[in-house]
Amino acid sequence: MKIAIASDHAGFDLKQHLIDFLKKNDEIVIDYGSYDQNPTDYTDPAIPACESVVSGENIYAILICGSGLGMSMIANKVKGIRASLCQSVEFAKLTRQHNDANVLVLPGRFTEPALAIAIVEMFLNEQFSGEERHIQRIQKIIKYENK
Fold this sequence. Notes:
alpha/beta, five-stranded parallel beta sheet, 6 helices
């Protein structure tokens, strides 16, 4: 699986931890930055990571900033992205089942590495339910995006 990953400075350490985990599990990881702990605007790495998902270059993206809020905001501005801020494994499960989310956002300052790994595993392995009510909701999002 090919996965985009991006962070700002506040999410850098967690991003590096997740890159190591994903590579050990034979995932292909494309790092869109930030590449160190120097101050970085979350928008700069998030936009190209999200665009890579929309283009099909990557299947999913994982975005990390301090609170996860900024990354969530910018990710959901990219047409075709359904990003979800997840602070638990259950959130990751539900966003994949109900929303067919294609971007996982994590709060780097509030997520321990072990929990982040569990959330990422759930997000990457859980399938969209395909239930009609969930399909209808996604279609409404797409219709609104195309206005």
